[in-house]
Amino acid sequence: MLERLRIWVKRFIEPIALGAAKIGLTPNVVSVLGFFTALVSAYLVVRGNLIFAAIFVIISGFLDVLDGAIARVTGRVTKFGGFLDSLLDRYSDVVILSSIIYTSLCPLFW
User: Fold this and answer.
1) What is the sign of the dihedral through the CA atoms of 17, 23, 27 and 30?
2) How many whole angstroms separate alpha carbon 78 and alpha carbon 94?
3) How far apart are CA 55 and CA 4, in angstroms?
4) Per-residue H/E/C for the chain
5) 89 catalytic per annotation
6) pLDDT attached to residue 43
7) Which pLDDT value is given to residue 110?
8) Distances in Å between the alpha carbon of 30 and those of 55, 57, 96, 103?
């Protein structure tokens, strides 16, 4: 089941990754863009605009998938890139979850 999903995602994302690479986007730049979209999402949560916040979370997730795909299709897979991607993913999680807790949408202690 998961293998079929992985194949479908690969077929969908690889052409986008090739196009992104052709316009000069590097995997690390896309990782940073994903983090900034997470920051925008957190800001929108705090401002109470949950629909747009959700849209930016989805964009951030898409960029997270795209950065690895760009690295693979261009042969630019590096340990640093993997570390940066993982680090920014965790920072994104913390920022978004902190904004949800800050606004009491989900209290820290239930």
Assistant:
1) negative
2) 25
3) 26
4) CHHHHHHHHHHHHHHHHHHHHHCCCCHHHHHHHHHHHHHHHHHHHHHCCHHHHHHHHHHHHHHHHHHHHHHHHHCCCCHHHHHHHHHHHHHHHHHHHHHHHHCCCCCCCC
5) yes
6) 98
7) 64
8) 17, 15, 18, 28
Structural domains of the chain, with CATH:
2-102 (1.20.120.1760)
User: Which position among 64, 67, 85, 89 bears the catalytic label?
Assistant: 89
Give Cα 51 to chain centroid, integer Å: 17
Q: What is the pLDDT of residues 59-108, one digit of tens each?
A: 999 999 999 999 999 999 999 999 999 999 999 999 999 999 999 888 77
Maximum separation of any 2 CA atoms in the chain, in Å:
48
Q: What is the pLDDT of residues 12-51, one digit of tens each?
A: 999 999 999 999 999 999 999 999 999 999 999 999 999 9
Q: How confident is the model at residue 5 (pLDDT cuts 50, 70, 90)?
A: confident
